[in-house]
C-alpha cells in the first residue's frame, strides 16, 4: 500500500519543475490538471486550482548529512535555513520554500536505529 498527498497550486508547471530540478523528484502520473511526483517512496501531487495549499511541510528524507548538504546546494536561493543539527529530534536538516511558499525540509535521522522505510 501507499498514499499520495495532494496540494492545490496556481503555478503547477513552475512547482513541478522546482521539485524535479532541485530535489530530483520524478513524474509518476500526469493528469489533465494534476501531476503526481515521486521521491523514493514519497508520492505527492500538485493540482491546478484557484487557490494555493501552502500549509504543512514536505519533508524529504536522505541517507546521510552529505546528501542533505547536496540537496541544500541544489535548492540554492530557495534555502531559508541552512543545514544544521537539531538535537531535539536527533536530525540534521535544512529548510527551503518552493515557488508558492510551501515549506520544504531536507533531513537525515542521526539515530542509526531509526528506520522509516
Quick recap:
This protein is α/β, with parallel strands linked by helices. It is built from 2 helices and 8 strands, in the order E-H-E-E-E-E-H-E-E-E.
Question: Any overview of this molecule?
Answer:
This is Glyoxalase/bleomycin resistance/dioxygenase family protein. InterPro entries: Glyas_Bleomycin-R_OHBP_Dase. The protein has helices at residues 12-23, 65-75; strands spanning 4-9, 26-30, 34-39, 42-48, 57-61, 79-86, 91-97, 103-109. The protein is of the alpha/beta class and 117 residues long. The strands form two sheets. The chain has a four-stranded mixed sheet, with helices on one face. A four-stranded mixed sheet has the order 5-8-7-6, covered by helices on one side. It is globular. The protein starts with a strand and ends in an 8-residue tail after the last strand.
| Number of spatially distinct domains | 1
**From the alpha-carbon coordinates, what is the Rg to the nearest angstrom?**
14 Å
Biggest β-sheet: strands ordered side by side in the sheet: 1-4-3-2
- The count of DSSP E runs of length 2 or more, i.e. the number of strands, is 8
Measure the end-to-end span: 13 Å
Write the layout of secondary structure elements.
Blueprint: E1 4-9, H1 12-23, E2 26-30, E3 34-39, E4 42-48, E5 57-61, H2 65-75, E6 79-86, E7 91-97, E8 103-109
Amino acid at each position: 500500500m501507499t498514499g499520495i498527498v495532494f496540494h492545490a497550486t496556481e503555478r503547477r508547471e513552475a512547482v513541478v519543475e522546482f521539485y524535479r530540478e532541485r530535489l530530483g523528484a520524478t513524474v509518476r502520473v500526469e493528469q489533465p490538471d494534476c501531476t503526481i511526483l515521486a521521491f523514493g517512496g514519497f508520492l505527492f501531487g500538485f493540482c491546478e486550482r484557484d487557490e494555493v495549499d501552502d500549509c504543512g511541510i514536505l519533508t524529504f528524507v536522505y541517507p546521510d548529512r552529505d546528501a542533505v548538504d547536496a540537496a541544500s546546494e541544489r535548492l540554492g536561493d530557495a534555502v531559508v535555513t541552512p543545514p544544521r543539527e537539531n538535537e531535539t529530534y536527533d536530525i540534521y536538516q535544512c529548510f527551503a520554500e518552493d515557488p508558492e511558499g510551501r515549506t520544504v525540509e531536507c533531513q537525515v535521522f542521526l539515530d542509526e536505529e531509526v528506520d522509516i522505510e
